[in-house]
C-alpha cells in the first residue's frame, strides 16, 4: 500500500527529558527504536535526521515572547510559571528549548517530506506534543510540534489539512491553534474531560464550521467501544472533508496498563486503529500522511510494542502480532530499565466491534457519546447524525 516511507530519527531526540521520575521518560522512544531496528522494521523505510525548528517556524504557532521565555529557561533552568514552564507536569531544565525545538524540527521534517513528495508517509515517534499552547507549556509539552507542522503546511499553500488524535487526552493545544480556521479539521478521540486532564474536549466545542470534533468516551471504554466510536465519526468526516494531507497523533496511553488514564484498549485494538488510519490516508488524502507519537507512560510493556506496530503499519509491512520480541531487545530492556520485557507483540485480543450503522442504543454510554458528537458536528458537513 505504501510507496515511500521516511522515519525521522536522531538519538538527540531523547534529550527531551524532564528528569528522573517524570512520566514522560525518553527511554520509551529509545526502546521503541531499538525494537523496530531488531525486528527489521527500519530496513523497510528511509531513516533520516532532522534539525531544530527555527524561531520563525515555532512562531507559526507560538508567541515570540513565549519562545524567548523558553530560551531563557533553557540557559538557566529557571521556571517561568507565567508561561507554564517549571510546573510539576512540565518542569524547566537546562537545554529545554533545544530539545523541544528538535522534536518540532523532526515533525517538520516529516511534513516537508510528505508535502514535497519525497515520501508518501513520514513518522516522528518522538513527536505528538499536543498540549502546548501558543503562549504556554502544558501537560508535558513545550512546543506543539503537530500544530507547527500543520501551520507550515498551510503556509506552503495547503487548503485542507485534517488532524486525527487518538491519544487518551484531548488534543487541546492543536484544537486551540486552529479553532477558528476552517482549513483545518481536528478530530480528537479521548477519555471524557470529566475524568481526565485537560478537562476540555466536549462535543459542543465545535470550532469554525464544525471543524473541531471531539469524541469524549467514558472511563473504562475498551477496544469494542473505542473502535465503534472511531468508525462512527472519523471515516465519514475525513471522506467529506477530503484533506490534502492527513496528520495523526498516536498517543498509546489509551492502553489498559497506562498509569495515567482510564481507558481499556489493548495493543491489538490500537493496532487496528493504525491500520484504519493508514487506509483513510490513502482513501481521503491521496496517501499523504504525517504521523507522530504522543502520550504513553507504560514504558516497557506498551509504548515500544505499540509504536513498533505503528512504524510497521506506516511502512506498509505490518507485523504479525504473534511475533516474538527479539532476545537482544529483551536484554537491552533489562539493562536500561531493570524490567522484564514482554515476549510477543500482542495482548492476545482480536478486536471486533458492531458498526454504528447497525443501530444506536441510547442505553449505551458509548453510543450516547458517539451520538453527542454526530449531532454537534455532522450537520455542518451535510451528514446525517442518525445511523
From TrEMBL:
Q: Which domain of life is it from?
A: Bacteria
Q: Which InterPro entries match?
A: AcuC, HDACs, His_deacetylse_dom, His_deacetylse_dom_sf, Ureohydrolase_dom_sf
Please, one GO biological process term? epigenetic regulation of gene expression
Q: Does the keyword Coiled coil apply?
A: no
What GO molecular function terms would the record report?
histone deacetylase activity
Keyword ATP-binding: yes or no? Answer: no
Domain named Histone deacetylase: which ranges? Answer: 22-313
List the Pfam families: Hist_deacetyl
Keywords from the named record? Acetoin catabolism
Pathway it acts in?
Answer: Ketone degradation; acetoin degradation
Q: What family does this chain come from, according to its entry?
A: Belongs to the histone deacetylase family.
This chain's protein is named: Acetoin utilization protein AcuC
User: What's the source species for this entry?
Assistant: Streptosporangium saharense
